[in-house]
Structures are given as C-alpha cells and as structure tokens.
Amino acid sequence: MKRILLPTDFSDNSWNAIKYALELFKNDTCTFYMLNTYTPVVYHVEYVLVNPSQFGLADSIKKVSKRELEAFYEKIKKTFNNPNHSFECLSKFNSLIPEIKEQVKEKSIDLIVMGTKGATGAVEVLFGSNTVHVLNQVKCPVLAIPDHFSYEKPHEVLFPTDYEVAFENKHLGLPLEIAKKHTSRINVLHVSYGYDLSETQEKNKQLIEHELNETTSLFHDVSNQNVEDAINKFQTKNKVNMLIMINNKHSFFENLFFKKLINHIGFHLKIPFLVIPS
C-alpha cells in the first residue's frame, strides 16, 4: 500500500494537485493523508506566553480547518469514489514544514503531492516559501503540480542528470514504477560543458542504463548549455508530461540548480515536477 501526503490550503491549486494524485495512482491501493496546518493570524507576545486556548483563537481556526478538510473529502468521494483509495484528514496546529517532516516520519510517507501556489495566487511567495522548502528540507519524494495543469498520463518523462549519483533503487524506484504503469518513455538528459565523463560518471551512467533496461528509455547529451536552458529547450521540442530530478546535495546540482534555479523553474513550471532526495 502506498502512503501519500497531500498538504492543502484549500486553494484551487491544492485541489488540482489532489486530483492529479488520485488520477496518477487510480489503480494503486493507496492511503492518502490530507494535511492542513493552521496557526493564528496574529501572534501577540501575551498570546505566546499564555495558553492559546484562553483566547479561543486556535479552537475557531481548528473548526474551520476540520470543516474544510471534510468538504474536500466529500468532494473527492463524489468526484472519484475509488475503492482502491482510503483517506485520513489531518488538521494540525503547527507550521507546514515541521508538520510535514513529522508526518513523513510517523506515517512512513512514500510521496508528497502538492501544488505550486496557494490561495493568494502569489506564485513567488508560496513556491518560494513552501514548496521549495519542502523540496530542500524534507527527506521524501515530492511531486509538485503547477496551477491549472489538467491530468495527462506521463508518457514522456524528462530526467536531467549529471551522472554524479550512484543510482540505487531508492532513487529510481518511484520513477520506474510510474514509467511501467503508464508505459512512459524516460528521456535521460545529460548537460555537459564539453568535457568527457569521468570514470565515476561513466560507472553511474552504466548503473542507470541497467536500472532502466525494463523500460523504454532514450539518452540525450547536450553540451555548452546551462541546465535550465537545456531543460526548457527539450520541453519545447518534445511533449514532456513530467520532469524528474534527484536533489543531489554533493554535485553541481546543489550549487548550479537547486539553490539558484529550482525557484526559477518553479515559477515557470508548466508540467508536474518530481524531486527525489538523494
């Protein structure tokens, strides 16, 4: 059974992400945990020092949170009614990132699916503060769904890599599972600056070739382009349905991509983006 966490702020974008998850895994036996975190809008010093319940703020916000979660659950039952899927609603008095970390550990979560912006519609604010923080801080695969993206099967998957990761099942298990169930073609994109692969990179390339031998895969080499441009050009030329990357803390992706470009790609993201922690 797959365990999937669905953080929601009850925005249209988060509902869109939930719909995508339910479609992508419609033939899988899954437990979905819908999570809403809440904190009082105003934190006065006396509020922090005194028991919050004396002010009644937490209670009223909790009621709203539970009511909205229940409404989403009823909407799911009415729209999908899939016997393969079970749901649990989690209304938590906490900040989003610490609560996600706690739930990932407590529930042994396999995947987090979330939207890229929230109710405010301010992509820069929410993608910068929430989704990117989850991508960088939570040790769990995250699938980010862009606003207004209607579900389509991930037939063409783009997988950029620098071959600096010694690929293991923990990195490729979920992408392989998605590829096999949806007959996806995985396009492995290597971006270089004119240098030959090192011995380590060659070895890692052989590892990924071996791991992908049961799926349809193509290997592409692009030189003298930055990673972002290479990804965007590939997406323009090909009908890509999903972007998958490994957040490798020890390669050039940490400096070149994840610190600098993940925000930028996030702001212009037009397809689902699956990030696997290394």
From TrEMBL:
<dbReference type="InterPro" id="IPR006015">
    <property type="entry name" value="Universal_stress_UspA"/>
</dbReference>
<dbReference type="InterPro" id="IPR014729">
    <property type="entry name" value="Rossmann-like_a/b/a_fold"/>
</dbReference>
<feature type="domain" description="UspA">
    <location>
        <begin position="1"/>
        <end position="146"/>
    </location>
</feature>
<dbReference type="InterPro" id="IPR006016">
    <property type="entry name" value="UspA"/>
</dbReference>
<protein>
    <submittedName>
        <fullName>Universal stress protein</fullName>
    </submittedName>
</protein>
<dbReference type="Pfam" id="PF00582">
    <property type="entry name" value="Usp"/>
</dbReference>
<comment type="similarity">
    <text>Belongs to the universal stress protein A family.</text>
</comment>
